[in-house]
Structure formats: structure tokens, C-alpha cells
Write a structure and sequence with these properties.
Length: about 500
Amino acid sequence: MTLRKIRIILATVMILGITWLFLDFTGTAHTFLAWMAKVQLLEAVLAVNVVVIAALVVLTLVFGRIYCSVICPLGIMQDIFGWLGKRAKKNRYTYSKALTALHCGVFTAFLIALVLGVGSLVQLLAPYSAFGRIATNLLQPVYVAGNNVLASIAEHYDSYAFYHSEVWLRSGISLGIAAVTLVLLAVLAWRNGRTWCNTICPVGTILSVFAKFSWLKIRFDEAKCKNCSMCTKNCKASCIDFKTHTVDSTRCVVCGDCIESCKHGALSYARKANSTSNPSKTSETSEPKDSSRRSFLLSSALLAGTAMAQQKDKVMDGGLAEIEDKVAPERQTPLSPPGSMSMKNMQTRCTGCQLCISECPNQVLRPSDDIWHLMQPVMSYERGYCRPECNRCSEVCPAGAIKPIAVEVKASTQIGHAVWVKKNCIPLTDGVSCGNCARHCPTGAIEMVFSDPDDEESAMIPVVNEARCIGCGACENLCPARPFSAIYVEGHEVHKEI
């Protein structure tokens, strides 16, 4: 099996698995495929996952930048667009010198933003996160809508193999950024192949340093080369100069297209350059055996390395009146999910991939609109609340921004506290009894008392015991006051266990 075919098979498995990880809303995919997110380099670095980091470094030192063409979903997506471009016009690429100054400048800006906590820039440049936003904002709504069609059909036949899930817009800004990113990447990859990887991507910059010293590289056999230029015209990384018989290994992603396009056998994926003293013997006996051995070694290493690691219906009140949508309150401190430990940890480690947002079954998480931390997850309770028995976001986060947290620990982790707003409370505004917040509080932190302690006929209002409140938002979500709840959750900068 050729190098190119091995790359295509492994890349196909990876792109399909990661895409399903983002699209699936049932919680099934992450049980089997969570490791695919955790073997992404930047996320492994932020999570201080030493095993994965070491494995990827060794992988690159041995095989070159195969990470970019087999493991990184954004790189694989670019290959798909580049393949479509090659079908429209064959032999479309040319050699160009590396834009080292631009690449280093972008990487320096990325590091400064990472250190200073300017999350917006980090998230725009992080490759896995860019793919995650595209999958979450553009692909998942289509997937869910298709699921809902199947659910309607199944329901007609009294089957519950599928169930409906609401399609909703989490953030217009995030949707716009995802759409622009997709169009930009598609155009660049269609026209020039790996432009993004070799000029913008910070992960590509890191790996290029190690790839320069890789054991196996694409190499020329000058005696066989006819200077036909087919290798250069098929190199999506623009790193092969057929005139000088050189391959820039810092940009080469080991896709194998050049070897496939060479009709003279002048290119090989080898430990050292071939010197052909007996062309017929070399081509007929030695090369096939070596190529087969390298292909087997490459596929085994890749598998081992990766293993380590619809329109909204109106809600009616008893069929008599339409219920007005809730409006998010102005929180002084944003809410971050249990397991994130603090807003600082979230803002420092999160790359904005939005996997936790796509996986949240309670519709609590959504992308932030804060200019400094665009697209990082924040919590709000207009559509649901953070159920104490759910810890899915902590299970899927690959960057350590939301650390794994046991259900019993989550149930006692305080991420905020409830605040009562007197002017919105319907026992006082409408003169009706309520008590929804107290009835549904899972920790018993809310008690109903007389608004006038000396009058037992006075309206009952809630009192919050902040020491027992964990900030789950059940009270805020289930409060019948509209559009603003009469009780809402104010976030805490640092979480604590109570």
C-alpha cells in the first residue's frame, strides 16, 4: 500500500470521528472518540498532557509533519478542498520560498496573546478550535435538523429510535466567524493548498522545527529525476523545488502526492537520499521492499500515537397565550462550568473549540460575546439549567479548561449564588402565590418566607441561603417571571466545594 493511500485512510477515519464528536448531541460519540480531541497538540500542551505531547514530538522527529495531514482536522479539511481544486485544474501548484518572517511574526503574536490571556486571538489561530467552531455552528444544526426529520418519520410509525432536539442559534458572532473561517480556508486551499498551515497556524510552526530533523523525509534520487516538474506542480505545501532537487521538510506534510505523481521513481520516503548506481536493480528489487516496510511502520506508528492518547415552535401557556422568551440578566461575574475551577483557568486554557457547547444536553453553554474571550463557553439559564447529575462538558474538554469532575463533587461545587430581584417577583407584582424557585432548588438553598414577618396573610417571597446555593440555575430557569427572572445566578471568580 502506498504512502498516499495510508494517509488518506487514516485521515478519513480521523476527520469522520472528530466531526461526529462535534455533531453528536446524544453523548454517545465521546464515549468512544474523546481521545481524538485529546491528541490535538495545542490542547495537549494546555492540558499538560505529557504523554500525548511526547508521543507527537517523537512521531514528528521520526516521520515528519504527518500530524498536519492525518491528525489535525483543519489540515485534513484543507486537503479535501485542495483535492477538489486539483480536480478542477490539475498540476496547479508551484514552488515558493518559505515566508519565515510572516510565520514567526504570527507565532510571536500568538504566544503573547496566550501569555496575556487575550483569548480571542488564540482561538482564531488555533487549528482544532477553528474546525470545532465550523462543525458546531454550521454542521451541527444541519445534522440536528436531519435527525428531527427522521424522528418525525419514526414517530409516525410509533417508533422512538430518534428523538427531537431543538435547533437554536447560540451566538450570531460565533456563527459569523465560523462562516468566514470556512470560506477563507476553502479559497486558500482551493487555490494554493497549504497556505494557512505554512503561514498562519501556530501548531504548524512548532512542528516545523521538529520536522526539520525528522528521520524519514521525502528525498530525491537525482539520477532518476528528469526535471519534469510534476512533483512541484502537485505539492500542496509548495515546498518541492525540482530545479535544485530539494524538499523543504519544515513545510512538507508527508501527504505522498509527489511520490504518486512522479513517473520516474525519483522521489522516495526514506531515511537518506538514494544514490543510483544500478537503476534497474534498485527500482525492481530494493525500492518496493523498502517502501512497503516504511508504509507499514508509518501506519503502525500513526495508529499507536493516536490511540494514546428547525424552526422553533411557540410555547403556549395552557393554549391561551404565548409565553414570552426569557432575557439573560446582566451578570457582574460570568458563570463558568463546574470543573473549570475559576474564570482565570477557563480563560487561560480554553481554545474556544466549542466541543463542550455542542455536547451540553441542557442548552446552558454558549459562546461568549466578550471581545477579549470571544467564543469561549459561558453559562446562561434561559433555555435550561446545569443539572447536578450531568458532567458531560468536563468529560469532553481536551485542553484542561474544564477538568473532569465526578457527579457527586459537582453537586457540591459552588460556581455562583442566586440573587432575588424584588421588582420582578410575581407574588408581589401580580399578587399570586408561586414558590417555583424553592420547590426546584436541588440543595434546599431557597426558603419561602412572609414578605411582612408580622402579617401571615402577606405574600410569600424567596430567601436565599448563599452558603448552600451551588449556582446551578434551576431557580432562574424555572422562574415564571418574564422577560427577566425574579431570581438569577451571579457567578463566582473562583469555585469552591461546599
